[in-house]
Structure prediction request, 314 residues.
Amino acid sequence: MTAPLTALAPMQDVTDLAFMRTLTRIGSLPSIFVTAYFRSTPTTCAIAEANLRCIEENETGVPIIAQLAGSEAAPLMRDAERLLQLPVAGINLNAGCPSPLVNRHGAGAGLLRDLPALRACLQGLRSVVPTGQFSVKCRTGWADTAEFPAILAEIAAASPDLVMVHGRTRKALYAAHTVQPETVQQAVSYLNCPVLGNGDITTLQQAQHWLAHICPAGVMIGRGAVRNPYIFRQLRGGPAPTTDELRHYFTVLTEETNRILHTKRTPAGHCNRMKKYLAFCYDYFTPEQEHALRRCTDIADMQRIFDHMQTPEE
Ligand SMILES: Cc1cc2nc3c(=O)[nH]c(=O)nc-3n(C[C@H](O)[C@H](O)[C@H](O)COP(=O)(O)O)c2cc1C
Prediction:
C-alpha cells in the first residue's frame, strides 16, 4: 500500500513562500503544496507575484501544483499552458472559493451552480494538462449537498488525476460543524482517482480517522497546519510539538516573513504579515497577549510575546 498523501491546503496570503520555507526548516513537510489561486479571466491572468514566488523559489523539494480560478475554458487553458512552463507538478481547478467577488464572475464555487460552465472548464483543462497532472478542488454543492452527485458526474467525465474535496457547500462558508465527511466518502466511492479529504482537520487523531474511514488516499490540511505546522511530521509518525517547538515555529516564521518582504519591509508591514498567520493561532495566547498581538506594530514586541507563549499543557 502506498503512503497516504498529505497536502497543505492553499490559503491566499497565508500558505505562502515564507510558510513553505518554515515547514522545511522545522522539518514538517507535506507531500504536496498547492498555490493559492491565480485568477484567470478572458483579458488577463492575475499572476499574483506572491503565488508565483511559491513556484519559482520553491526550494523545499516538495512538488507544488498551481491553482487556477476562472469561469471560462479558453482563459483557463491559456493560463494553464503558461503555468505548465514553470516547475509545477500540475494544474488544479478551484471549484470551491466562496468569495462573493470571485463567485459573482462564476469562478470558484460559482462553477458549482453552472454545470455547463464547470463541464467546459474541466474538459478544456483536461485537454491541455498532461496525464497525471490535472486536479480539481471542490466544495460539495452551492447551496445543498443534493447537488453533489451531478457535480461529481461532471468531474468524473473529465477524468482528473486527483480531487480534493472540502466537505462543505458554498452556502456553509466556513461555519463551525458544517463539514460533512460522508460527502467526501461519496466522492471517494464515485471517482476513479485518489480523493483527498479537507475541512476542519486539526489534530493527528482527526487526520488518522479520516484516513482510516473516509479518504484513505490522503488528507489536505489548511488552518490546522497554520496553528500546528508539526502536523505533517506527526502524520509521518513523528512526535507532537513541544511548547519550545511552537515558539521556535513563530520565530522561524518571523524570519522567513522578513526574508520574503525583503526591501518592502516596514516594522508595521512585517507585523501585519505575521497577523495573517496568527489569525489561526490566537488560542495559544492569553487574552492580554492576543490583544497586544493584534495591535502590534513592532516585530520585537511580537517576538517577546512569542517567547512567553504557554500551551495549555504547561
Ligand atoms: C484565508 C484563506 C484563504 C484561502 N484561499 C484559498 C485558495 O486560494 N484556494 C483554495 O482552493 N482554497 C482556499 N482556501 C480554502 C482552504 O484551502 C481549505 O479548503 C479550507 O480552509 C478548509 O480546510 P481547513 O479547515 O483545513 O482550513 C482558503 C481558506 C482560507 C481560510
Observations:
- The beta strands are 5-8, 32-40, 45-46, 64-69, 90-95, 134-138, 162-166, 195-198, 218-221.
- The longest helix spans residues 243-261.
